[in-house]
Amino acid sequence: MDLQHMKLQILCLGLVILASYIGGLVARRLRIGEVIGQIFGGIVVGPHFLILVRRFADNHEVLRELSLFKAFDGFLHKGLESYFTVFEDFHFFVFLFLGIIAFSLGEELHRDRIKKVGAKAVYICLLQALLTWVLLSFGFRFVFKFNWINSFLIGSIGIATAPALIFILMNKLRIEGKLKSILANIVVLDDIIEVIFFSVFLSIATSMNRGGELSAFHITLHVLKEFAAAILIGTAIFLALKLSLKTGTAGDEEHGSDDTFIMTLISKHPTPSVEILLIITGIISIGLAVAINFELPFLITAVVAGFLISNFHSHTIFDSLKIGNVMPIFNLLFFGIIGSSVRLETFSVDSLMFIGGYIVFRSAGKLIGNYVGCRITGQDPKVTASLPKLMLPQAGMAAVETILVMTVLGGAGGEEIFNTVIPALVIFELGGAYLSERTLIKWKTWTTGEREALSLRGSGELPGRDFDSLVGGRAIQMHAVTKEQAVFELSRLVAVEKEIKDISVITEPVLEREKLSSTSVGGGIAFPHCRTEFVDEVTVVEWTTIDKVPLKLIFLIVSPAAKPDEHLEALKALSMMLSKDGFADELIASVRGGGFEQFRERLITAAV
Predict the structure, then answer these.
(1) Architecture of domain 464-607
(2) pLDDT at res. 261
């Protein structure tokens, strides 16, 4: 056992954790995004930054003569190689974590969610992927004079999107619902398209370098074999998880089982727990190792396993990947190691033009393609504004493929592609992390940003007719016992009044909003709400519950999607009125006693 190497491993791990944590704190204070700080923390302690320091020191003899610098100078020239090797050893965690994130995408690939997204996600993905590939390929061929096959390789690498960063941020911000479902479907399909394109063009490039004849049949057969093998390993991961993680209830094991002693010992019920997280991590690790060993698209393997678990076993398994006191540690390590892997020394004046071209062409393809795709498929304006920006981050698979190109092609364009793509990945990962975090925070503000309006602390006096103009005669009493039942009944009334044929255009966004955080504001009052293009004015339905239900008053607020100000004004008007002493109790009594119309008349009379 090499104790010297082990000591250096422990030191490097400690440096990554501390630097990333401190960087995240500083970034949070500066309000530039915690992820950015964690990545920069990894950069500062990483070996590539020290390579730049060594270069600077070699060009400044005065600095090397300083007594404080001499010991450090010795490390830079003698120990940096070992330091570099240790950080290279950490890269296994990046691949493992990417695999776990790819597996977690299976949660969004349940057949019910896919039906909701439908073909729209496919159209958006195909449009942006093909546009990105065309812009990069033809841009590098005609603007920078790369040969055709190398241009096509760069174009195929550019299609890839980094799912880990986006979904880590979504889990961190607790974002669920429509945006996450659409994004998951697009990212998965995006990476499948990218892997196919890359595999085909790398096979062609390799064959050309060896002087062999190109055969469309052999190339197609090779790609199909890779995908078939990846799917087979993904299925094996699924079976192993299914045997280890039971469905049913925890009490079932008390009544005996036909399982063997070993299976009884290791099997767990899929309720969220650290134990389930450990089982998932262990089994996926083995599967990924097998896929990587045979040079298969390992992310496809993980996605297949997640898809099968979601559709043919227990959906609750994925909840263990969101454990609050564990996953932040994994996230910090991931971003710290990503930062330490940034090859700062690859930036050069000679390749700066190529790097800039890659950034411009890829950004144009992703932004324009996703925006146009969203508009064509009639996506919600919030999705249209957010989705294109979330498709910019790029690392992980793109970095692995770029290194593979350099290894396979070498001087036949491989090094040129490496020196172009890797620095661009740094910019996309850092810039994409910042833009994505800002975008997701804004999304959450759009969907949950009515705290002040819901605070019930209004101080102004509003005329009674404001309440009447919002609620009108829409007041009912019913005996629903679940949130879903209540939302459905209230939505049905709005749908009938506004002649809306599909009630789900109201129920789905309302329940999606409830997943993010409850709209209960205390005092037995709640304001479930949504914005939709199917109404042209704010519509409110008031519901008085039976005494056994904790909530006594529920107001369903449905407002025009194009008029967000009216949405907030309605929330504020209702909360201010209900903050008046005795108003809520009198409203409840009037509905239950059948005297709501007289209550309305008194309000209108008092306001005149």
Answers:
(1) 3-Layer(aba) Sandwich (3.40)
(2) 45
